[in-house]
Amino acid sequence: MSDIVLDRVTKRYPDGALAVQEVNIEIADGEFIILVGPSGCGKSTTLNMIAGLEDITSGELRIDGTVVNDRAPKDRDIAMVFQSYALYPHLSVRENMAFPLRLAKLDTATIDRKVNEAARILDLTQHLDRRPSNLSGGQRQRVAMGRAIVRNPKAFLMDEPLSNLDAKLRVQMRTSVSRLQKQLGTTTVYVTHDQTEAMTLGDRVVVMRGGVVQQIGAPQHLYEHPANLFVAGFIGSPAMNFVPAAVADGGLATALGEIRLTDRLRRAMERADAPREVILGIRPEHFEDASLVDDRMRAEGDVFTGLVDVVESMGSDKYVYYALDEKARSAELEELAADSGSSDVPASEGQLVTRLSAVSPVREGDHHEVWFDLGKVQLFDPSTGRNLTLEA
Amino acid sequence: MAAFGGTDTRARKLRWSLLNTLVVVYALVPVLWIMSLSFKTPATLNDGNFIPREWTLENYRSILSTTEFLRALLNSIGIALIATAIAVVLGTMAAYAIARLQFPGKRLLVGVSLLIAMFPQISLVSPLFEIERTLGLFDTWPGLILPYITFSLPLAIYTLSAFFREIPWELEKAAKMDGATPGQAFLKVIAPLAAPGVFTTAILVFIFCWNDFLFALTLTSTERSRTVPVALSFFTGDSQFQDPTGSISAAAVVITVPIIVAVLFFQRRIVAGLTSGAVKG
Amino acid sequence: MSGERLSEDQAAPGSPADGTAEPGPSPAGGSGRGGRTGGTRSGRRTLTEGQRSERRLALLLCAPAALVMIAVTGWPIIYSVWLSLQRYDLRFPADQEFVGLANYVEVLTSSYWWTSFGVTLLITVVSVAIELVLGMALALIMHRTIVGRGLVRTSALVPYGIVTVVAAFSWRYAWTPDTGYLANLFAPGSAPLTDQASALAIITLAEVWKTTPFMALLLMAGLALVPDDLLKAASMDGAGPWQRFIKVMVPVMKPAILVALLFRTLDAFRIFDNIYVLTSGAQDTSSVSILANTNLIQALNLGIGSTMSVLIFLSVALIAFVFVKLFGTAAPGSDTEGRR
Ligand SMILES: Nc1ncnc2c1ncn2[C@@H]1O[C@H](COP(=O)(O)OP(=O)(O)O)[C@@H](O)[C@H]1O
Ligand SMILES: [Mg+2]
């Protein structure tokens, strides 16, 4: 168990592609840290550099205070779980798990003991003599975990270890990975492109984009105080709504109507030298059916009336999509949408997503009034994407 | 497919069995015929019967007592084995590079070996004949081994690079993470996975070398390096009056046995080898 | 950088649970797949140490194979062109001299050459056509049979594996009067191998027997590419077995079929062993290879023999060219990167 420090770590691939740029992360002993970001943002590259599978172009990687840039993977005492599991097809489950111990020249009795112990923890005991090809996806995943934990390494690295499982199994395994990590207390770096996994698993989350770290923080912190448009759009599901806003006297002109500036928002604007235009972001869960809101709450928010496009009833609550007539999308928003590879960060064009109570009587085709919490509104600088609402 | 019901399945099975029988007959009749000839006595050799009326091992005894055949058999085995070994080693190296590494001239190499695979061997006979005579390679083992390597290399490279592409190379990384040196990663993880492909390729290349007639005919002149296919086409019988049919048939059967054995034991691998190379188009 | 990855991204923050496998680098990733994204922009100019050592290793690994192939084919080909421009008869070595294209004129005005050429073409076309049909049938049987698949495949490999000369002798004896079980099949007392037409038919038969399994294996590789679901969908759409074959399987298999045809056509054009054993080229059954061999090895006329060699080489190149141009046959292995 150990701490891992990435100090201005940069990776340029032989073909010239700059995959990771000046990444600084300090991972504490025993911490469970998540690297998250869209595909191609450099998560695997970062992980492989920690593993020693890729050279570090510049910067320093320290494990327990020692610079390990030039150490071979085998000398770093780190275990890794791969997305494809990378189980040795010609070896049985037992032999797969024993492989690192054999290489470490442990005696047979110790190897047996450790393998059996790991198999017990992972519920693989009855599969020990089978070949990986005869196992189900979930079992293979557990063998891969087993091969990592038998060694009792300084740290675990996991590259999308759950993404080859079906949705239900993934949720189950998520819990057991989390439990296992707590139980072993081993420093863990976990890569995923799935923000839900990131939010639920990690002590801290590192959001990356285009090889650059966007923000590091506890899941709840990222959710409440995203540093910029990208993080705001990436964290949270459904994604935050973004609407362009123009500063008008005393308020903001948006597709949600004229929005009054609360003190908090006014301070944010002042800090940013009173820009003419901003991007307003608000999460779906900060809306509520106006008819279900009491006066006190109403005073802290604002209301918007729009045409209800689609209603998705989730049982516990309702997702209500409003059509917005929104023409001016900022270049930043466009780029963001392209970047995360999907059209629903920020909410797909001209659409507002809200999450309302299940009891809301809203119906498709209605003109319906929703309330939103002004206290949760965030403002972003359209040119830099910076979150203006963050108090320094 | 299974939803077609019981009686129907039986009819289908019958139909397939018939078709299969047809294939088996097609494939085996010429082989059985030459075997039959090899067991016939001189007296019944010309009776035109598919099954011998009198059985004898005389033909085998007679060819196995001539150096003409034994020497040819030794040549065949030696030359084919050496050529196979070299072609597989060189092919493995090249195929690894093609499947795994990025380098300029990769396409050129693939293209050239494709050209060679389709090359009319007869076009090489005159220059090789002349060059080998000058270099003293004519009528020697190396004189045959060289063209065999050349013409089996494309086959080896294709089959092997198809196999190599299938190996999950992430395993190499996994092994390194598990504490293996690059050498250990190769020996303990990659080599065991590559071995079946290399073995299959070796069988295919061996079959290719074993089968050659044209080079063996034109680049040899004596028993020193003549291989069985050529030797048996030169059989004349012990005396002028003796019909060589029996000896030729026996010799033919002897060189067919290794092939039949290989096919029997490694059918699956051979099919995989031939088809995997083909679809990587 | 990121824009190019656009289409690959499935998992958006808006869809937490359904973002399955990230379609990121394939397992082969790592070094195998360099030149993407930034590669085209800046990769050409700067070679890093890693890239250079990868190239060095690759060249080192390929060099022996490439050298052998070039030494044994490249130089002799040039040499054979040179020989074809000489009068060079080993029986009269003193007469060797440069004669320009005289050998070509001699060969191309000789009726032997054109007869052989015609015979070769005939055998090639007829045998490849029959093989395609039989091979397809065999491929279907091997691929789809519900009983005895191993048995069928094993038997089918026997003709592929057997030494051509051995098979040729089997056919020769089968058709030899008195000796053979087939000799009296058509006309009692006849000698089929001594008549041009029937001899050619037997040569074709021998060739077809020997190489159909190979064709079938190549086609079977193509069959394996036809998704079962596609056939099911077609039968749901009302296609009968024959329609499924013609309208679904054949188009999907087309690349495999063309490759198989190309391979077999070029191979058939070189036919030698079968003819050598069955007729030795008597009764005008010589193929071009047989004729060239006769001139080279029996007549020891290296000049004329080499001329024929060069002409055969050109014919083969022409056939390959026509295949590639006309049908767009993708040479197998020509596309080592991507696609699959
Ligand atoms: N071996 C490589 N050579 C060149 N570029 C690479 C290589 N591996 C990854 N890249 C590039 O580096 C960037 C980051 O890749 P990666 O770390 O795999 O992303 P992620 O794991 O976040 O999806 C991508 O643009 C990718 O194309
Ligand atoms: Mg990745």
Structure overview:
The complex is a heterotrimer of chains A (392), B (281) and C (340). Helix content of chain A is 28%, strand content 31%. Chain A has 392 residues and is an alpha+beta fold. In chain A, the strands form 4 sheets. In chain A, strands 6-7-8-3-9-10 form a 6-stranded mixed sheet, sandwiched between helices. Chain B has 281 residues and is mainly α. Chain B has 2 domains: 56 residues; 218 residues, MetI-like (MetI-like fold), CATH 1.10.3720. The two termini of chain B are 30 Å apart. With 340 residues, chain C is mostly helical. Chain C has a domain of 222 residues: MetI-like (MetI-like fold, Orthogonal Bundle). Chain C is built from 13 helices and 2 strands; from the N terminus they run H-H-H-E-E-H-H-H-H-H-H-H-H-H-H. In chain C, helix 8 crosses helix 10. Chain C is globular and about 75 Å long. The chains are: A alpha+beta (392), B mainly alpha (281), C mainly alpha (340). At the B-C interface, helix 1, helix 3, helix 4, helix 5 and helix 6 of B face helix 1, helix 3, helix 5, helix 6 and helix 7 of C. Chain C: This is Multiple sugar transport system permease protein.
List the topology elements.
The complex is a heterotrimer of chains A (392), B (281) and C (340).
Chain A: E1 4-12, E2 18-27, E3 32-36, H1 43-51, E4 58-63, E5 66-67, E6 78-81, H2 93-103, H3 108-121, H4 137-149, E7 155-159, H5 167-184, E8 187-192, H6 195-201, E9 204-209, E10 212-217, H7 219-224, H8 229-234, E11 241-248, E12 251-254, E13 257-260, H9 263-271, E14 277-282, E15 287-289, H10 295-300, E16 301-313, E17 317-323, H11 331-339, E18 351-357, E19 367-373, E20 378-380
Parallel strand pairs in A: 3-8, 3-9, 6-7, 7-8
Antiparallel strand pairs in A: 1-2, 1-4, 4-5, 9-10, 11-12, 11-14, 12-13, 14-20, 15-19, 16-17, 16-19, 17-18
Chain B: H1 6-38, H2 58-64, H3 67-100, H4 106-117, H5 122-135, H6 141-166, H7 170-177, H8 182-211, H9 214-218, H10 228-234, H11 245-279
Helix pairs in contact in B: 1-11, 2-11, 3-6, 3-8, 4-6, 6-8, 6-11, 7-8, 8-11, 10-11
Chain C: H1 29-32, H2 39-43, H3 49-84, E1 86-87, E2 97-98, H4 102-108, H5 111-144, H6 149-161, H7 164-175, H8 196-223, H9 228-236, H10 241-269, H11 273-278, H12 288-298, H13 302-327
Helix pairs in contact in C: 3-13, 4-13, 5-6, 5-8, 5-10, 6-8, 7-8, 8-10, 9-10, 10-13, 12-13
